Amino acid sequence: MAVAASEINGLNLTPLSKADDNYHRPTELKAFDDTKAGVKGLVDAKITEIPRIFYHPLEEHDSNGTQFHIPVIDLEGVGNDSLKRKHIVDQIRDASEELGFFQLINHGIPITVLEETRDTVRRFHEQDTEVKKQYYTRDLMQPFIYNSNFDLYSAPTTNWRDTFGYVSAPNPPDPQELPEICRDILVDYSKWVMKIGKLVFELLSEALGLNPNYLNNIGCSDGLAFAYHYYPACPQPKLTIGISEHSDTDFITVLLQDHIGGLQIHHHNNWIDVHPVAGALVVNMGDLMQLITNDRFKSVNHRVLSKHEGPRISVAGIFSTTLLPSDKLYGPIKELVSEEKPAIYRETTIRDFSIKFQSDGLGTSTLKHYKLNQANV
Length: 377
Ligand code: OGA
Ligand code: NI
Fold this sequence. Notes:
The protein contains nine helices and 13 strands. The protein is an alpha+beta fold.
């Protein structure tokens, strides 16, 4: 017999199929939040029907069958072969201008580190719920945050996903503040991602015709935060979504995914799959990058489908100082602005930009608030 969410002891969530005039979304969001067990808790309770709060039917799209694919760029030789480096920079430029996404192979992070990182995410989310609950919080001042849907109370759509995260730069937490179950690998992985990020910013600078150190020098790699996502197997995957359509607010995101797939980018009215490539890292441009490059590099909307198969695990390395206090202003880079290409955006601090994003939630465009000519919006 199907187990509906409301029948699960203590959950009190209206299942999708149940006509219930008393359904009150805010109350049920709170009830779900109070379990502190996330979507994983629903799956553990063996529900066969999603609670109504997760209902988000996908519009029909012309998926797949497009001639576009996300380029897989081989970094072999990037540090010691100038011809290869030039070719890599050309590929990165094309991908960043057109799709805002590319994948990197031969990036130098050992495959064992990637595997251990994914295993660790799984271990954290699958540990004893009572132990895990102690980390459940929405307090952004905490050094380590685990919750389900960071924008639970503001976003129109509740996602089939749990996440933990922390800020690793510029002020890394004392390792003792990270859960022991994942501490060592988080610290190790963040060092690797910082290294790759700095290299990608060099290549992006070159792609823009700037000094290789330009983007690192203006602070693009000063801040790094991580979101460790866990997308449980879903009993009704077509009726909900793993992560809503959104663009990232940072400079770039360096994403590690697993073999399951489901990540798609929105391009010319099509959804293009970001196919899992063993050992690869996915890199995408965020809104701040689009802002400072005056629309040269595109921050493209993307989403993750939920699936029967799971859990899917991914790790987003987010290059931004996010909410850290700062007076530093970012606007279109002056070398990229000319009479023919006047500045499209006004300047902002990263903190103001991030606050705007946090308050609007996933799926809203932060960038449009900073357009200079509001008539174009
Ligand atoms: C994100 C994101 C994609 C994924 O964290 O912003 O888009 O595959 N993640 O988890
Ligand atoms: Ni994203």
